[in-house]
Specification:
434 Repressor (Amino-terminal Domain); Rossmann fold; alpha/beta; homodimer; DNA-binding; about 15% strand; four-stranded parallel β-sheet
Chain lengths: ~350, ~350
DNA sequence: CTGTTAGCGCTTTCAA
DNA sequence: TTGAAAGCGCTAACAG
């Protein structure tokens, strides 16, 4: 390993002069810099950032945690897209990203200690775990956290939340179905977290502002990104005294499974029952019938989280909750009832 | 920040004794350890791994690069699953994982320098970029690299390759179609990399061992994980003088698009044309008709890569090429021709 | 303009 | 059984 010492010796300057030259300090004249840089080149010197960090007490490193409660990890189609954008934005700003493995989170190790021992400047959580103690401790620690999409919105001074404008977009989606003539709509919603409550609120608002009566039967509890329960839930809905004409699923992944189940039962989409998903995964636009869904702005979500992280370590005070606009994709899975 | 010095002062021992006690050294008697650990507890001391690393010249940190050539990053449905398993396996072994952003790779920065300055012990590449110079330099550097799935298999002493047993499984898939009565099969294959060549080889072998004539018309060039070219390619195939009864697509993602295109053209799957994908993404089992595909063993692929990385830094000499078995999922998209 | 020196937090030899 | 001291690679205050 070539160190700054080697460069100093070889170039005839002292270590501090070399350090300054490499930092492009005004104190060092051009000719010295040139000389030093040529030696750097010659020896193939590469500065050791670990040493630099230790000295400066600046670490330029964020952690990322992926939704500990699920098996999905990076395979979560929505979160992986958000993560992509987060990482690229962070990378543009010259920070590093360290991944905290699901194993680490599940093992019950002290997450705060883990992060501190690695000098992480902040942690990005792709959906908080809704039960994990360590995640909670991390959120209420002095390490800044930015949580996207799945969170409880517990107030914590040091935690920042980003999500789509779920209430508004769910209201839009519901209004669209109503406009198309649907009066009996069921919303299979996910876990009780902030985004779910918002979606339910938007759902209700649309129903009520259309002059219809909201009744609790319109809500059915499900889970996000979990196909296993879908056939039971769908069967339950099909045997209700009032069978809906339209079912909103918690997300596209579950909605695909709903397609499958309905197909097996000989029920046509959208002729017999209409379906909508949520998230806007690429492939739902290419299945038959093209699935109506909410397209979350994955790029904006990821970038926003990154910007908040960066502004935080710059000592700024961003908003604690940021909402990002989402769009409706009409598809063909919600029929028009005459 | 509480340092080892603080613990030393507070406990009345010297820094070195504290260090030894925390490393559970035999030199330190139980009562001293107990005393020291109680002070650690009291002060909330957390060891600084950066300092430790610097001192020991051990860094316990791997890099991960995601397929620079594409927009997908972590959204790549196959690679994200592999990555999941890689990270968890690495995490179990107490190493950290640092993400190298696509931005970093695209920007043309010196990747080797980047990795060295961060003291990365090795780099995991999810599909090599087939053109990127920096990626190549990295692979031929003294930093060990493990590449999964998309690679050229250029010989490099310090690069290790893992993929599914593509030749064998593609032979199986092709044989299955032949057995079902298909004689006119077209394989839309991906970029010219090792895995593609293997798949093509397996495809040929199946055709020839069935006593059929292989002809180059059976191969059509496409791309992996790219929907944009699919409709052109499909249209091209449909206007051939001999229209095939079965089309193999490069992957599930493209195959979904093929479903879409054929549907738009009024061509039924599998009655008119049979389709198969490749990779085994969860949702292809839930679309209609259920898509025949090759299920790559994502868990084994990821874990194997991790194990190779770890064995490398332990000074072992793993094989340079490791093949993992894959399975066929029959689905319903390859019809039986009587 | 440049060098000497101290020190970031930690481990480890050497000496007691 | 413990401590002093050196040093990992680097930066920066201070002194010239």
């Amino acid at each position: 390993m070539v160190t700054i010492k080697d460069v100093a010796r070889e170039s005839g300057f002292s270590v501090s002069t070399v350090s300054r030259a490499l930092a492009d300090s005004d104190l060092i004249p051009k000719h010295s810099k040139t000389k030093i840089k040529s030696v750097v080149e010659k020896l193939g010197y590469i500065p050791n950032l670990t040493a630099k960090s230790l000295k400066n007490n600046k670490f330029y490193n964020f952690g990322v945690i992926t939704f500990a409660g699920e098996e999905l990890g990076f395979s979560h189609n929505l979160f992986s897209g958000i993560l992509n954008n987060f990482i690229n934005e962070i990378g543009k700003n010259k920070f590093d990203v360290t991944v905290l493995s699901k194993h680490l989170v599940d093992s019950g190790e002290d997450l705060v200690a883990y992060c501190k021992s690695r000098n992480l400047n902040g942690v990005f959580m792709l959906s908080g775990d809704f039960s994990n103690k360590e995640m909670k401790k991390l959120q209420s620690s002095d390490i800044p956290t930015v949580v996207v999409d799945g969170f409880k919105n517990d107030e914590s001074d040091n935690s920042y939340y980003v999500s789509s404008n779920n209430r508004e977009v769910m209201k839009k989606l519901t209004s669209l179905a109503i406009q198309k003539g649907h009066k009996k709509i069921v919303y299979v919603h996910g876990e009780d977290i902030y985004v779910t409550r918002e979606r339910i609120a938007g759902f209700k608002e649309a129903i009520e502002s259309a002059g219809m009566d909201f009744n609790p039967d319109m809500l059915v509890a499900g889970h996000y990104y979990d196909m296993s329960y879908v056939s039971d839930v769908i069967d339950g809905i099909l045997t209700k005294e009032v069978v809906p004409t339209c079912i909103f699923m918690p997300d596209d992944f579950c909605a695909i499974k709903a397609y499958d189940v309905l197909h097996e039962r000989g029920i046509r989409i959208p002729e017999d029952i209409s379906i909508a998903g949520f998230d806007g995964l690429e492939y739902v636009k290419h299945i038959y019938p093209k699935m109506a869904t909410v397209i979350q702005n994955v790029a904006e979500l990821g970038k926003t989280c990154a910007k908040i992280m960066i502004s935080l370590i710059n000592g700024e005070e961003p908003q604690h909750l940021t909402l990002i606009g989402a769009d409706i994709y009409n598809g063909e899975s919600i029929r028009t009832i005459k």
